Description:
The structure holds two protein chains of two kinds. By secondary structure, chain A is an alpha/beta fold. Chain A has helices spanning 12-37, 52-58, 75-81, 85-93, 126-139, 158-169, 189-192, 198-203, 217-235, 261-268, 272-282, 288-311; strands at 67-71, 116-120, 146-151, 174-180, 183-184, 187-188, 209-213, 238-243.
Amino acid sequence: MTFPPSPSLPDESDARALLRSMLLIRRFEEKCAELYTQEKIRGFLHLYIGEEAVAAGSLPVLQPQDSVVATYREHGQALVRGVPATTIMAEMYGKQEGCARGRGGSMHIFDAETRFFGGNAIVAGGLPLAVGLALAARMQGEDRVTACYFGDGAVAEGEFHEAMNLAALWDLPVLFCCENNLYAMGTAVTIAHAETDLALRATSYGIPAWAVDGMDVLAVAAATRRAVQSVRAGGGPHFLEFRTYRFRPHSMFDPELYRSKEEVAEWKKRDPIPLLAARMREAGMLDDEGMEALESEVADEVDEAVTFAEEGSWEPVEELTRFVYSETEEVS
Amino acid sequence: MKTTYREAVREAIREAMDRDDRVFLMDEDVGHYGGCYAVSKGLLEEFGPERIRDTPLSESGFVGAGIGAALGGMRPIVEVMTVNFSLLALDQIVNNAATLLHMSGGAFNVPVVIRMATGGGRQVAAQHSRSLDGWYAHIPGLRILTPATLEDARGMLWTALEDPDPVILFEHVLLYNMEGELADDAGPVPIDRAAVRREGSDVSLITFGIGVVKALQAAEGLAEEGISAEVLDLRTLRPLDDDAIVETVRRTHRAVVVDEGWRSGGISAEISARITEGAFYELDAPVARVCGVEVPTPYPEHLERAALPQVEDILEAARALISGKDGTL
Ligand SMILES: Cc1ncc(C[n+]2csc(CCOP(=O)(O)OP(=O)(O)O)c2C)c(N)n1
Ligand SMILES: [Mg+2]
């Protein structure tokens, strides 16, 4: 697919911020992979590496009062939304200092402060929640957009279609962010969808929808600004299909039998980080020194997160059954 | 005041809508149609389409939206026409409503109330006659209520709405037409305790929902035979009121558990196990159970009657316990 020409660079500090958040996700997750092999992080771990432009470009467009719903591949969204790297890492360690007290792990990042409503590991399970959050905002007269992230795989689920219809029918302030990375685990979009133009599927519900180059953080940011502006102005739900690609296996257990090394290599030529860095260099906004400074800032943040997680503590087993129901009076 | 169970539920919804503008009702056909059991009849005119919200046929979608709205600060009453259709929303109820608080380490509670009609007895065949109340009671994170009286139909909803966590109310379809006296000032009731609906000393009939009505009739019949039966209305299936269960068995030393749901793996098995755990040495006879026969509920009247617990079945089970011919299997 051909996309419109990439938008022009923003000013230096904005461009640097975009680069920094993509770099933070990348380095944070590289560290996660390392910690996984050391068995510090266990369970399922789904890396976002390759897709950073989507979170980095779209989330800063939101306001603090907005809500975010995400999937199990949500470290990037959480970081950009402002959930501290420290509490995310502690969550992945399963420590009680984690943003969900270690109860959820990698797939279930929750944070009330930033209105980050998870980390849902049921494919498409978050879409109805986003519709409800938007309904609440509308009924309360609050200026709140709900951004809902999900993959191409979710588009085949019934919950996706129910949520599209409800959002459109009730004209709700939701931004649907489809991260089309071409695969649902090992199932290519072409063997899962009768109509592979996913934006078109949303259009059938009367929802304004278009595809965006998800490897170009500037294109992501521009499209999100346009969509969010319209949602906020009362334009009802919008749908963005971010065409992206994951460079890593689906999870740490995936032998990647379903795609070729050549295909992955081809996509890596459009790695969103060097893509933006090159443009910034060209424009004189970035040099080797600047890049090193960024790398070292990010490395410090990741180190700090690891230290925080390492120093964290295990929730006492006596607390196992806390938070099955709300603690109204007696808090143990 | 003379009223019906249906009107009592409607009054409860009306009160909740009046008291708290965060409350709204949604389901298929709650508005223009008036509710498939006419529970919400007239409410659309009173409260308008924003708060009496007709939904498309999207059980997972709108139940999930109710959960999301609860997360977003509203107090939704999500109706699901019948428990049968809630199977399409199980993902949202089990994976989200019941789980988010714990999985988020206490960050996000889900104050949603879900109401559904349950049970058989109207000859509408298997797919419309399920009694899955006990199934839902299996899930930690949910609170399961089974209003069986006018007071509870009128009073449980508001208390449920004040609960910070998800509550499911099961309204048995045969109860909607139940008529009776309700105090003019009837209002919210506590939801965490079982209630003895009739005191007795020879045998305890432990049940909930429509079982309460049938057990009370059976107790009447037993009284004529000189058998004094106590009827315990559980009212809440999760959490179960263990104390009340143990206490009634301490008084009567015999128990018949009545559940329209199936025996295998059902809530009746759980209740029986709790009696064994908490009152084994109080028992003069094994615990008896009167449950739905293990078939999908059939359509013809005679077969449906045979499939669901009837007053005669309760009578027989109680007599057998008293006369020493214990055990129903
Ligand atoms: C309802 C459901 N079915 C199956 C799974 C197992 N599963 C986990 S991730 C996944 C693929 C989802 O692909 P997509 O939506 O494209 O997201 P991506 O992983 O590519 O980000 C599957 C099948 C699940 N978690 N939930
Ligand atoms: Mg995918």
